[in-house]
Specification:
The protein is an alpha/beta fold. It has 9 helices and 7 strands. The protein binds NADP nicotinamide-adenine-dinucleotide phosphate. NADP nicotinamide-adenine-dinucleotide phosphate (NAP) binds next to helix 1, strand 2 and helix 7.
Length: 247
Amino acid sequence: MDLANKTALVTGGSRGIGKAIVFELAAAGANVVFTYVSSDEKAREIEEIGKTNGQTIFGFKADAGDFAAAEACMQFVLEKFGRIDILVNNAGITKDNLLLRMSEQEFDSVIQANLKSVFNYTKHAMKPMLSQRSGSIINISSVVGINGNPGQANYVASKAGVIGFTKSVAKEVASRSLRVNAIAPGFIGTDMTDKLNEKQKEAIISLIPLKRIGDAEDIAKTVLFLASDYSKYITGQTITVDGGMVM
Ligand code: NAP
């Protein structure tokens, strides 16, 4: 899948799934800008690895929930590369609690980082994509956004919101050949899921027909497919990548 001369922006690319997406898109030839919120050192390391591999990768520090910062990031992308072809809205956090105990701050901060962020970046990427009459937007949701999960009402609301947002925007921009899709990962091994103990992980694996926790690369490969012309007749969809957990 050749992404030479394409420009990609990935939110939350300093660790986990986002980092794997950055390297996957760069390996396919795209120029990649990724955002992060606190991992300065990790961001510089990723840029260095890119340089060593002859790839163009830039880290940009920006809170994904901040509308003005998203605009500044998009300006950076356009000044550097003159276009935006692929937007991956990946940045996300969890602040789990049963609703009875969930604070307003826990609810608001998760909605801000996981859902408002998708609005922020999609809004700023849409104009240049519409005038190019091409572009692929890929939003990272979650299987729990489809099925629900106790203790995650804030997170699930944000991820279900991402699926609804994806379908609505896909319908708005399809006539200009822009595609908007979502991916719903299942249980993927990253810092986010490392919080669970071995017993909890075993219980989850017992629910996965393919009998393993997913790798960040499993998601990155699906992003590559949705970013490329191999998926040019696919829009408004949510692709579940979960080892068969939800079917
Ligand atoms: P992770 O390992 O915790 O990494 C999160 C990434 O997002 C980091 O690069 C982090 O940057 C960045 N980030 C967090 N808040 C941000 C903000 N406000 N602005 C900009 N960047 C921000 O998480 P992950 O497991 O890779 O998850 C990535 C996405 O997949 C999330 O949307 C998550 O909800 C979704 N997902 C994950 C799983 C799973 O099993 N892991 C399953 C379903 C869906 P810093 O390094 O600077 O903190």
